[in-house]
Structures are given as structure tokens and as C-alpha cells.
Amino acid sequence: MKIEKLKPFINGQFVESTSSKYMDIYDPSTGEVIAQTPCCTKEEVEDAIAAARTAFPTWSATPCPRRVEVLYKFRDLIALHLDELTHMLTRENGKNWEEAKGDLLKVKEPVEVACGAPSLMMGEALMNVTSSYDSTLYREPLGVFAGIAPFNFPAMIPMGWMMPMCIATGNTLVLKAASMTPMTSLRLAALLKEAGLPDGVVNIVTCSRNEAELFLTHPDIRGVTFVGSTAIGRHVYAVAAANGKRVQCLCEAKNHALVLADAPITRTAAGIINSAFGCAGERCMALPTIAVEESIADKMVEELIRQAGTKKIGPAYDKSTDLGPVVTAAHKKWVLDWIEKGVQEGAKLVLDGRNVKVPGYEKGFYVGHTIFDHVRADMIVGQQEIFGPVLCVKRVKNFEDGITQMNVNEFANGSVIFTQNGYFAREFARRTHGGMVGVNVGIPVPVGMFPFAGHKHSFFGDLHCLGKDGLRFYTESKVVTAHWFTEDEKSATRVSTWDGAL
User: Fold this and answer.
1) 287 and 275 Cβ atoms separated by less than 8 Å
2) Each residue's pLDDT tens digit, 273-299
3) pTM of the predicted structure, to 2 decimals
4) 418: closest CA among 311, 274, 252, 309?
5) Residue positions annotated with a catalytic role
């Protein structure tokens, strides 16, 4: 099989990298190398930043309705090429077919929101803010932004969360695509060009952390948006903010669900299975831990095991597959090491996915559904992000015990309650530390007009991505106060201390 060598997208062109180092991209279903992507040089990253800087004056001066015309066309091109893109995403990431299609449709959603930029960017005005003085607020783009994307959503995060609102508001962008999964982002860049995006407005590179450090310190970068681990997110936030940049860092999670005794067992278990094992658990809004009231815990665990046993494990591009592989062999080892850690801590392994085999795909990176029961509050396996198909079950006495155990966790991306009791649902929504809360919704990811609102160590920054926060992140306010002289004023020799603004 011929291995494709990818090219960075700089100034509207796919250019040959001069790097001597290329990074392998695997088909997780087979374990085979399907492409290689360059570790772009420092000079190539600087070229991408320079292209974005050069494009900014013309693009920011382009009327907002003309800018979003490109996004309208881009949206239509995604729909036209959806099957091609879905297959590409399954091959490089390992999501099953429907999950990969959803990854792409979650690009379409924030693109549609960003197409409303002509209305969203409308400012505010007040005539006669003081006598014969008028004030008007405008929202303006800042310049060049950098986006650092993770491997787990090759389409949605770089080309949905980061790109649409950034360019709709008049900024330009340099994206660092994840080196493990850059193919879909690069293909979408080609569709952006086909949609009429001017050269230099969006640029995509793949590189190591060493070259990416430029994004945090380069004087031409005005802001940085990052999705990834908490350790790196802390570093990105600290360094970029110290260099005067706007920063938003979306980081790790250990989302919990509180399952009360009145929750319907079958439907609740189905929601948990989908939330815990969908996308092979490789998402920051997965549901890797549930706190179940003791009175129904045995029945719930039994039903979870039963339902997990009905799910098909197989190659990502087989449309009948429920659970695909994890992204790389190294990540498979990471997940298996965590399972071993849980065993050593004394959690009860009631469903073991470590030795799963898929006939014909023996070299793929598969981990089966794994469930731990009797996970205590002091066990690390129930506290830290595993990022794999592993579910931890904690047993709690009641609502108060459950929400207390949930809130001590250092992460607070999402939190969920399964109940039919309105009082407890309301109390949970009010008291949980989670920034995105589900009531009988296992994956409470907001749609694009609302912010992706992680809390605590799941987020560093002031403005979240998406929604109105996203608009504010990519723009700054300018207030213009105007006064026109009367005939008598034209000859005045004194002006008040506040020049009329009091």
C-alpha cells in the first residue's frame, strides 16, 4: 500500500515541507500506517503566521456579509462530500461510522452559527449619552489567532470550534492539527479554498511541541485557543497570557453521573453505555464514572454488563460497528495500564475488555467495554481521565453523598443526573460544579449557540469557545463618542474637564 505524504496548508497552497522528520498516521482498525505528516520546521510555522498576518488587513476590511458567504459555501461542500469525509475520519481516528459523521456535522453546526456574524457583531449605541454627545460600541477583530487541536475530534474541534467564528469576525488563523489525525482537517482546508476563502486566512501545520511554542510567544499572534491535556493547557495558558495574548484552554475531564433510585434502569443504562463507550471513550464529555444509589446498584451494573455485551466491536468503517478501536498502539497501552491500575487498587473488574479480538483485524488497536464496580472515592482510577472505554461505578448512599463525591473531583467539564424527581434535578443543576449539566442527558454538550463551559481544572481562561463567549473571544470592543459643534461652540475657548462626557 502506498503511504501518502501529507503537506501543510500555507497561504492557500499545499506546500512541500523541508522537514526531514515525518510522523506516522495509523489506521487504528488495522494497525497499518496509511500516511505520514511532516513535523514542520520553525521556519514553516513562521511562514504560516506571516501568511495569516499578511491576509488580515484585507480580510478584516471585507464586509462581514461577504466573509460569511464563504462559510455558507463551505457548509454546502461538507454536505456534498460527507461520505468521503466520514470514511477519511474513520480511517485516521477509529470512530465508528455514525460517530465520524457526527464529528463532521458538528462542524456544520458552529459554521451555521458563525454565518450569523453580521447580526452577532452588531454593536450598541446611545444618542444623547450626555447632552449632544452620542456613543457607539463596535466589535472588531484582533488579528492572527492560533489553534492547537487534539486527536479525538479531527473535524469538529479545529474546523468547528476554532475556525468559523474566528474568520467570520474578520480574524485570520493558524491551526496546528493533531499529528495523529490531520487528514480530515487538511481535506476541509481544501474545501475552504474551493468555497472561495482568500489565501492566508486559514493555514494548517503539523509539528511538535517545540515548534508549537511559537504560537505562545510570537508577537503577531493575538490569541490562542487550545484543546488537550490539563498539564499542557496550564503551560499554554501561563506562557501565552504572560505574553499578552488572549487564551482559552479546554482541558481534561472526569465527568460523573449521579443515578438515583427512581431512574428507569433500562433507559438509564442505555444512556450510560452510549456516553461512556461512544467514540471509544476518547472525548472530554464522555461519562467514565457513575455514582449509583446503593439500593439499585446491583441491578444497574447487571444491566450495564448485559447491554455492553450486545454491542459489536469492529473496524471503524464497518457501518454495523458500535465500538471501534482507540487511536494508536501507544494509547491502547495507556488505557490497558489504567485498567491494571484499577485492578491493583482493588476495584472489582466486572467486565474486562483487555483481550478483545476482532477477526481479520488482529493488529488493530481494540479495547473492549470495561466496567469497574465498587470504585471507592480514594481510587485514582475513578478520579483521573483515562480517555478510553472504561466505566467506573461508585456506590453512594443518597443524593447528598453522591453530589459530594462528584464535587470533590478536580475537573468539572460536565455532570449528569438520572432521575424522575424534579426537586433533585433542580438541586443538582444548582449545586453541581460541572459547567455543562445533563438531566437525563448523558452527553450534555451544548449546541453551538451556547458556550462549551467547562469549569475548575477542565478550563483555563475567561471566555469559553462557542456561543456569545466565542464571539467575544475573537473580537474586542471599541467605543466611539462623537459631538458636533454648534455655531456658538466653534468660538469657545474653554472645555470642561470631562469634555462634555459628564
Assistant:
1) yes
2) 999 999 999 999 999 999 999 999 999
3) 0.97
4) 274
5) 284
